Amino acid sequence: MPVLKNINDFAAFKKEKVPISMITCYEYGFARLVEQSDIDVILVGDSLGNVVAGYDTTIPVTVDQMIYHAELVRRGAPSKFLVCDLPFMSYHVSVEDSLRNAGDIMKKTGSSAVKLEGGEDFVPVVRALVKASIPVMGHLGLTPQSVHKLGGHTVQGRDEDKRKALLRDAKALEEAGAFSVVLEMVPESLAKEITESLSIPTIGIGGGRYCDGQVLVINDMLGMNEKFNPKFLKKYADISSMAIAAFNEYNSEVKSGAFPAEKNAFKSEKKDESGKVYST
């Protein structure tokens, strides 16, 4: 299998019909494990607001928080292609603000690219970032930063007008210089149509089977939240149950005195008359 190392590989993967695997990760420990895997791309998503910080939405997340988490992930996964989200209001006010915030993220984190939500309205921002040598991944469909405008986390593009609008947005992002586009929670037929209409790859999360790649949040696909079960999610492990069982076993052994055992205890050291160190 080819290895995805830089921005040019995205187009090559699409041309050669090699699906792109992307995983959303927020911290060093998991990033270190992803680094040892065959996953192509890591996304540091502003979904850390929900997953890590416990917010109801991604809206409170700041640029400084994104930088902090992207730094952690880059230390854990130094060789992976790393994409960092631009959070809410970091690219909405002006092109100048967008350049400043994206530039800070690239300089301080070692990210390979940034991702932003939105279509035609943000073409000037995408153009400016690309001109400044900052690679941009787009994000269409359910855009969590617009959750209040959209009226909740619902499937987008089901009626004809919205379907056409998403197609226009995807083409606009491609023409502005985006190197790929995430499609979140859109009908499979629309994701297929967008994928076939673009020369850049699409990466789906709830976009069905015909996108050029897929992305899942690491905490979700490992089953760390037993209450989160959207239709698009497949859980590849049940870390939640395993962790709770381990916590309870630890508690039981502490209470019973089984832990720590003799092998977990350090020995004192003494010297004999010759000066040789030995343990007691």
Please tag this protein with its features.
8-stranded parallel β-barrel, 280 residues, 11 helices, two-stranded antiparallel ribbon, alpha/beta, 15% strand
Describe the structure.
- With 280 residues, the protein is an alpha/beta fold.
- The protein has 11 helices and 10 strands.
- Strands 1-2-3-4-5-6-7-8 form an 8-stranded parallel beta barrel, surrounded by 6 helices. The chain has a two-stranded antiparallel sheet with strand order 9-10.
- Helix 5 packs across helix 6.
- The protein is elongated, with a radius of gyration of 23 Å.
- It starts with 7 loop residues before the first helix and ends with a strand.
- 40% of the residues are buried.
- The model has no long low-confidence stretch (mean pLDDT 96).
